Amino acid sequence: MASLHGGGPLRLGGSLELSMAGAEANVAIGLARLGHTARWAGVVGDDELGLLVLRTLRAEGVDVDTARTDPDHPTGLLVQERRVATITRVHYYRAGSAGSRLTSDDATAALAGGARMLHVTGITPALGPDAASAIAHAVRQARELGTRVCLDVNHRSRLWDRGTASRALAGLLPYVDVLVASADELPLVTGGAGPAGDGDVPALPAAGTGADEDVPALFAGGTGADGDVPGLLAGGTGADEDVPGLLAGGTGADEDVPGLLAGGTGVDRDVAALFAAGISEVVVKRGAAGAEAWTADGGHATSGAVPVRAVNTVGAGDAFVAGYLSGLLDGLPLGERLLRGVTVGAFAVASDGDWHGLPNRAELSLLALDEGETVR
Ligand code: ADP
């Protein structure tokens, strides 16, 4: 989608900077900057903003060969308002946008060239039934093709409530290999109680189940084409019959919430539940506290954030995912891919724009320099 960035309260008017935005596009750009092949699979309107989106992605080296232009719906728009120096508000104008019209055919086309990874987010499935179906189709097809699937939960409470999101994402989980979430998003996918008011979040399906045939998913974002292309989608369903009862009641975001499962802390229990559901890698983003990751074969790593002066935290999560997936595609050990994730995340935080300041490979070590240093 296109984006406008304002430097002060929007109601005062003034200058806005026109650019493009979107979680999956941010990840695709982050990967392309790091030298990976990346394809974005999405839909834009037949308008100037659509041309802007495609032109920007092309300029960043992202493959948009299968991206589609929809003559009947406009390109979505978001407006970022820097309300005060450190607080940004995001306003969406994307109801009925072209992006919400993503279809299963778009997903098929995007994956056709073969890809090592498909990356999807929980945002696209929230955009509407077409996009949801497309994402569900994409993750299933990825599984058939031997393409690994990464899902970033990326819950957007303005798009759907936690119960609806949880039911939708549950349909995707059987096809997910790498799950990325904030700690407070984990209960959304494990069926934990989560924050107050979360009443109807369904519990996690057991491994090998939940592959309902009629999963209404929502697709979002791109996909990868050749070799190491990571893609992007999301969607799902829920209402699985065979939800393991022990997980009901689950956990909260905080570490020490006692759940129904014996032993373990909240996050540990959520991670164990995800492994039981067949996911092989769980990555938790913790903002300025860094990140933590577990693999189903017993691997575990934590990393503090790279200390930077925060300029704009929008896009940090996507940048982190780009770094983490880059490490995965490079075959780095768990701790090193986590380190690449927090490094690229820090670049996003320390720069203006959601993706503009992301590093290329040679710049990854730049943040180790002293603040204010000039590189000659
Ligand atoms: P999201 O943007 O999805 O909410 P986070 O806020 O957790 O995700 O940020 C993602 C990653 O970006 C973090 O795991 C961390 O590595 C990095 N990051 C976020 N905020 C900061 C910060 N203030 N300073 C340095 N790194 C940060």
Quote the distance from N terminus to C terminus.
37 Å
Number of domains: 1
**Average of per-residue pLDDT values:** 84
The top level CATH class name = Alpha Beta
Give a quick account of the main beta sheet: strands, pairing sense, barrel closure. 6 strands, mixed
Structure notes:
The chain has a single domain (23-42, 98-357), classed as Ribokinase (UDP-N-acetylmuramoyl-L-alanine:D-glutamate ligase, 3-Layer(aba) Sandwich), CATH 3.40.1190.20. The strands form three sheets. A six-stranded mixed beta sheet has the order 7-8-9-10-11-12, with helices on both faces. It has a four-stranded mixed beta sheet with strand order 2-1-5-6. It has helices at 23-33, 48-59, 104-111, 129-145, 162-169, 186-190, 266-276, 316-329, 334-349; strands at 2-6, 16-20, 43-45, 68-70, 77-84, 87-93, 117-121, 148-152, 178-182, 281-285, 291-295, 300-303. The model is unreliable at 193-200 and 205-263 (pLDDT under 50). A hairpin with a 5-residue loop joins strand 10 and strand 11 (291-295). With 376 residues, it is an alpha/beta fold. The site of adenosine-5'-diphosphate (ADP) has 19 residues, from helix 8 and helix 9.
